[in-house]
Amino acid sequence: VEVFVSRCSSVCPHPASAMVAIKSISLIALLPAAAAMVHRPAGQCNFATEPDIPYFWDPSCAEDGMEMGCFADGIHTQCRFCGEGAYMEVFCPADLWCEFDNPPTVPYYWDARCVPGMLACNADGRHVHCRFCGEYPYNGTVHCPDNRHTVAPEARCEFANEPATPYFYDVTCEDGMVGCEADGKHLGCRFCGEGAYAEVNCPASLCTLPPSQQTGNPKHYWEPKCQQDTLHILGCLADGVHPQCRFCGSADYASIPCPE
Question: Per residue in 76-103, pLDDT tens?
């Protein structure tokens, strides 16, 4: 720790950050090594010694590095520990830490609670915390946490004929939920936004904006009421293809609230 403090004195933004870093190092020393864990670079993390705890680059970490797991390398606030010991509540991005020889046909996520022999754990055959969820044979038994923390399969929906109703892959689908199993094959394939499925919100990912406009401002979302009345005209047709794709939240569209 003394060596680290000497090094940190020239790069840490303030003493509080140094204390967070020292606390992180102390916690690392108390955690057991992760068996068969394969480490790789993540974002711009820079460790003097590769840790035995999973980590990733999280832009949502606050500047002060005080959030759980942030400031993991003692240099970058966005470098974040996850998924083990004191950091179990921080989801690890499964697409970085699970390692499949072939893309799976079932959703998966990183479950810090997994132990050898637990249903659907060790999904990739390498990491016990890599876990299948949601689709058969795990529907009803292993629930996916949410769309943000679950990796959906590449072959998401398979229709004999392309439907007019919007659809997406929802890892939270369960038997009997409105719009789920839209293609009759995949439980997570879900209709949304129209007719009998109007209560199911379509994700902004249905918009076909160029990559440069998919993040940042103005933000966008899927608005099924677009062009149906005078309150739903501004910002619609944001991608030039779908009338329901709508800009929101800033600049000329500041008057349009973005959904949570």
Answer: 999 999 988 889 889 888 988 899 999 8
